[in-house]
Predict the 3D structure of the following.
Amino acid sequence: MSVYFPSRLTVLRHIMAEMTKPMPDDVSHFRDKIDKSPEAALLLELLAYLEENPRDWWEPGLTRASWGTLDRLEALRAQPELRARITHDLTGLALGAAMGADPVLQADLVDRVVESGEVSLADWEAAFPRELLVVEGPRSALWQEFRTRYPWESPSSEDRTLLVWLLERLLEPRGEDETAIMTPLYVRSAIDVRVWQEKIPIDIRVQVDGQRLRRELEGKPFTCRDELAVVRLERMVKHIPVAQVKGVFDALERVLPGLAMPTTQIDDEEVESTEALGRRSTPQP
């Protein structure tokens, strides 16, 4: 009985076909979760914006320390094809070999090529779907990193444009019920009233007052939505010190607690021992 051995050309064609085979939509189930999570949806848009509009204070690979390669590949344990593709793209390991490796081995190989400098942090970041990061990753840490790194005291015009874009996203109606993450009242009340009156130019405040009088003469209410429509977000961000807008994001974290910085839980026994130590160290009368 004769045994068939494929030619080298046939094998090469098979390997090339495997390497160029379109990857299945491995992030579809992430999108279902994103649709149900305003925190994840907002972060996904923010990451996409920062990728399309790079800022020097937001470097590739910033989240690697808090959510590294192994964390990401473990989150993809149920998706061996996607893990194998990522490992292959970053390390050059053959797809078949990468498919048979577990996340620990894959992560070790990936980290080796990154730390050796053969793969840039930008390429490492790009290899993982953004959807994975916002669904399975540490959302709070990602958002707090953004807040920490944003140049509140000395923003450039591009940084102000980003802030306007982000505020627009917060006020934009979403979903089937057309509900926004925040209301104009919540945004307006998060900014100090005195700062608003001092920094918004008088000609804009005159426009606001004129609109208010006209609406009241017509027997119609004049709300914060109407006021922001006159002032406009881009003019607000231009004239209000950007550091004063931080209050909007403090308010946002009350609306979306998944973005807030986790509070440190103190064990009851630790509290009791601390109180006992204090009592022993207090001089008795």
Q: What stands out?
A: The two ends are 104 Å apart (CA to CA). The longest helix spans residues 202-217. Residues 39 and 72 are 19 Å apart (CA to CA).
